[in-house]
Amino acid sequence: MSLPKALAFDIFGTVVDWHSSISRETRSFLSEYLPDLPPSDFALQWRELYQPAMRECVGTQRGFVSLDTLHHETLLKLLEAHRVDVSLIDPDILSALAHAWRRLDPWPDVVPGMNQLRQRFPLVTLSNANVELMVALNRYGGLQWDAILGAEFARTYKPDPVAYVSTAQALGLEPGQLCLVAGHHSDLAGARASGLMTAYIDRPMEYGGAPAPDQSFAQRWDWQADSLTDLASQLLN
Amino acid sequence: MSLPKALAFDIFGTVVDWHSSISRETRSFLSEYLPDLPPSDFALQWRELYQPAMRECVGTQRGFVSLDTLHHETLLKLLEAHRVDVSLIDPDILSALAHAWRRLDPWPDVVPGMNQLRQRFPLVTLSNANVELMVALNRYGGLQWDAILGAEFARTYKPDPVAYVSTAQALGLEPGQLCLVAGHHSDLAGARASGLMTAYIDRPMEYGGAPAPDQSFAQRWDWQADSLTDLASQLLN
Fold first, then answer.
1. Using alpha carbons only, what angle is made at residue A222 by residues A19 and A178, rounded to the nearest 5 degrees?
2. Which residues fall within 8 angstroms of residue A32, CB to CB, at 6 or more apart?
3. What is the pTM of this model?
4. Nearest to A172 among B122, B132, B144 (CB)
5. Are B59 and B162 in contact (CB under 8 A)?
6. A25 to chain B nearest CA, in Å?
7. Residue A134 and residue B122: Cβ atoms within 8 Å?
8. A148 Cβ contact list (under 8 Å, min separation 6)
9. Alpha helices in chain A, H assignment, sequence order
């Protein structure tokens, strides 16, 4: 297997631990409005609304909507499903809560792994996050990229092939010269269908220990690693 | 004057010294093919072809073309104007020469100034350079940005207002909350016409000491500095 010319990273779950961070960020709000709902369950339910919300934006009249906006909409939807009357809550509190997705901790191997990989490869984001959210998340977690590409640059969401292919094009690469690094089989399947190389990072705690919902997409990927430092030693040695 | 929420940077001339770098990068080629032409003159002539080439891409059928491609086309045009038969030259040599624009030195104040400014502001590029060129240039010069925005993200070139306004939008800002940092009065005039704040960096050696071609656009800008470290002390104190 020849080496890729650049690495493109999925972010939520692969680079940052959204489950424990969203649990932490929502705990105080929930203790007031939904004291019987464990923050871990709330985090899982909120994340579950993300895929269908995004799908409504691909190839439909709605078009590209920033992930910040979708997080805000799915938050209201989830609270209403739990019979919370959101019209009684200060809109600033709800906006700050929707921005919890900007305060997500990187997994412990991420910064050292990226520092090693950066010596050899350009590292870019290939996430469904909008630029504003990514900039905030990078500053929060001390993450440094060569470019923020993916959804907003492509004006569409993964797994639309345009999102993968336009990232390679922006770097002057053929799809087969770019490798997606992701913790999700479904994302990697989309990348492979678009001609990209694939590197799977195992993140068994992404869903707080619960099984990942995309096991049916599992297959043999070009590289398989249990951390970014593990991937670095496979690619650099 | 209130402070901006983020700083967007012009690159060629403002951040990197294209004149002395292009002179250095073309010297060996010119000594073989145009020994009587000083590399400094060649650099100035090559740069002069950039504005008209770009204008041909704004609001015309040609649409957005990467700056790498325009540099290649203007190189051939310039060599032909000097009666060099480019069909006799190895295409790889010409491509490598067109990529001289990826090997430009930052001015000495740039890295320390950016390190200071980054503590307080997100720093993004708002250049006509395409992403691939910017990534190469950043790696060459050790420059670190929060995001690569500008022309390719906007799919149009400055001074098209879309290039300025879409950079603010991507950061979730109103145009008036974003400040363009540039060494060119014409660029700053475009930014001001689009509602951005403006910071002028004086770069008297940009054209090797020759006068800048855009003096007629000079006006009083929101900030005026003679280096990025000077701008940092004005904005941070």
1. 85
2. none
3. 0.95
4. B132
5. no
6. 22
7. no
8. A124, A125, A131, A134, A135, B146, B147, B148
9. 18-33, 39-48, 50-55, 67-81, 91-98, 110-118, 131-141, 151-154, 161-170, 185-193, 228-236
SS3 A182: strand
Report residue A113 as tokens: 């792994």
Give dist(CA A148, CA A166) in Å, integer.
12
List chain B pLDDT tens, one digit each, 237 residues: 799 999 999 999 999 999 999 999 999 999 999 999 999 999 999 999 998 888 888 778 887 888 999 999 999 999 999 999 999 999 999 999 999 999 999 999 999 999 999 999 999 999 999 999 999 999 999 999 999 999 999 999 999 999 999 999 999 999 999 999 999 999 999 999 999 999 999 999 999 999 898 889 999 999 999 999 999 999 998
Helix then strand count (H, E) for chain B reads: 11, 6
Cα A4 to Cα A1, A114, A179, distances in angstroms: 9, 15, 6
Structure tokens at A142: 């001390």
How is residue B132 written in tokens? 């691939």
Instruction: Look at the block and give the residue holding tokens 């790696």.
Output: B139
Interface-testing mutation among B7, B131, B167, with chain A (most A C-beta atoms within 10 A): B131
Q: Within a 13 Å sphere around the CA of A85, how many CA atoms are in the beta-carbon half?
A: 2
Task: Report how far residue B78's alpha carbon sits from residue B88's, in angstroms, rounded to the nearest whole number.
Answer: 15
How many cross-chain Cβ pairs, A to B, lie less than 8 Å apart?
44
